[in-house]
Amino acid sequence: MRFSQLAAFGCAAAIVVSVAPMQAKASIFQVKSGITSVYHDLSFLSSIGLDLTGTNNTTKPINDNFLVAFNIAPTTNFTFSDTNGLTPLSGTIEHTGTVTFNNQITIGNFSIGFDPKRATNNASGLFLKDTVSLNTILFDLSAPETVALDNKDLTLTSVELLFSSEFASILGNPNLIGVVGGLAQVNASVIPSISVGSNVVSPVEIPEAASVLAILTASAAFLASKRGITV
User: Fold this and answer.
1) Where are the alpha helices (DSSP H) in the chain?
2) Neighbour tally for 25: CB within 10 Å
3) Within 10 Å of residue 206's Cβ, how many Cβ atoms?
4) Which of 26, 59, 78, 204 lies at a C-alpha separation of 20 to 30 Å from 150?
5) Whole-angstrom distance, CA of residue 1 vs CA of residue 81
6) Can you list the alpha helix ranges (DSSP code H) found in 73-175?
7) Which is nearest to 208 in space by CA: 25, 51, 79, 27?
């Protein structure tokens, strides 16, 4: 076997190594629209000084088990992997709609984001932030009881709203940290996506590894034959 033949063999081996890990389909998704439904025990909220006195620009909850719901806004750019059910990757789920407590403070246009440093005790790392008046994280979110996902729909059920240290501080009650303040359910439309740098491209189909390997091997063989090399 001449040096040129060894080079051709090495090229084919490199193709096998580089192509084999490729997946058949994308496993990254982006949230596009939907609603987040929320339940609060109003008597409990009243006992800690929070009386719900109004809502604005909200929507109908997914069912009667919830008090209020918020539309997922077009500015949402939350992406996640289907690894382990759901693994947050980047971006936020933005909402429209506000609620008012004690006829004094209005919060809402909530943003759901992810910070792995907040994944302690029962918190998943996901959090819910007010963007209207307090501009702070109100609740840490537990892992959902169930995750249902296909190529177009995502449902997260029984997500506990856990009082954040920031909100407990505002309320002057540190004993509230980690206490369940309500439940949420997310019903969202999603699209398959892949991340390219800081951007998201969708939808995506990644070719089968075997098909790519066949094409590249055939190309290598053709080039070798043009040079009189036997592969």
Assistant:
1) 3-19, 42-47, 165-170, 209-226
2) 12
3) 13
4) 59
5) 47
6) 165-170
7) 25
